[in-house]
Amino acid sequence: MKKLAIVLLLLMSLLLLGCDEEQEATDPEAATDEVASGCPVGEEMPEAADTADFFSGEMKEYQVLGANIDGSSYSGDAVIIESEVEGIYQLTVLSGENSYLGFGMAYGDDLMVIGAEGPVLEVFRKTKDGYNGIWYSGDELGAEVLSAEAGEASLPATEDVLTVQPWPRPIDFEVRGTNPDGTEYTAVLQTHPLGAGAAARWTFDEDGSEVSGGALMIDDDTFFVVFELGVGIYELMEEDIWRGEWFSPGNESLGEEWITPLN
After folding, report:
1. Which comes out higher in pLDDT, residue 188 or 30?
2. What one-character DSSP code corresponds to residue 83?
3. SS (H, E, C) 219-238
4. CB-CB contact of 226 with 28 (8 Å)
5. Looking at the structure, do residues 109 and 180 belong to the same domain, yes or no?
6. Is residue 161 part of a domain?
7. Strand locations in the chain, DSSP E?
8. What is the DSSP secondary structure assignment for residue 28, as one 8-state letter?
9. From 96, 119, 252, 255, which residue has the greatest number of CB atoms within 10 Å?
10. Distance from CA of residue 158 to its chain's centroid?
11. Beta strands in 137-229 (DSSP E)
């Protein structure tokens, strides 16, 4: 545990340093809600101490190779740490401007769905020596590979990792949810097509607060969502009734949502 905590602190320090350096270099007069690197302005990266106790399972190291939407590539190192709860993971990628921290859930036997700051939604498929992945950040898809063997990785076509269906149309959902602590909430989830997926926004009935994110439709019966640093997996249970499970850092179990279309 002591070695793990030291590794996490070093990784998080490097990530925070990268964000701080880029924010200092940004022209204050041209500042927007987010800097170009994807490090949120005015938001704090979760500290290692916030998650180190929960993410204390097996730790695996990988080499990273990725492609941005503009065709540029990046490489670096990655660490995946299992949590105390089976099927929940923390992913840290160190790759200069492309460094990020993500949290996610296993889906089925070979998929891992990650939500990263931005927000960015990533879906990784297990391979013999790591993972092949795609990522979505409100436009088209990018690709990323995590390989346990240095120098062995090559980028696949996104369709070879996962086939993504276009979001069918603007859809609003009525939401009935349960937080990990057992408290309940209601909301409206609004979605509309955007690039390869959809933009998503939850508006909560209790106080009118909003949370924004994105979604990818995997098939007629499954879609994944990202919100801030959280991630959710939704499956069609019966006609027009979807059940979702979600995770966000700071929790030690999953939340649940039942959603039905309003239009």
Report:
1. 188
2. -
3. ECCEEEEEECCEEEEEEEEE
4. no
5. no
6. no
7. 59-67, 73-82, 88-94, 100-107, 111-116, 120-127, 130-136, 141-147, 171-178, 184-194, 197-204, 210-219, 222-227, 230-238, 241-247, 255-261
8. G
9. 119
10. 17
11. 141-147, 171-178, 184-194, 197-204, 210-219, 222-227
Give me the count of residues in the chain.
263
Instruction: Tally the domains of the chain.
Output: 2
Taking a C-beta distance cutoff of 8 angstroms, is the pair 165, 157 a contact? no
Please state the rounded mean pLDDT for residues 52-77.
90
pLDDT in tens, 105-163: 999 999 999 999 889 999 999 999 999 999 999 878 899 999 998 666 688 888 889 99
- 176: containing domain: 171-261
Q: What gap in Å lies between CA 230 and CA 103, rounded to an integer? A: 7
CATH code of residue 91: 2.40.128.120
The strand pairing partners of 223, in sequence order, are 217, 234
Q: Which residue has the tokens 């959710």?
A: 232
Residue 177 and residue 243 in one domain: yes
Provide the CB-side half-sphere exposure for 166 (13 A, CA): 5
Residue 144 within any structural domain of the chain: yes
Instruction: Give the separation between CA 163 and CA 246, rounded to whole angstroms.
Output: 22
Q: Are 202 and 210 in contact (CB under 8 A)?
A: yes
- Look-up of token digits 């994105």: 214
Angle at 254 between CA 193 and CA 119, to 5 degrees: 35
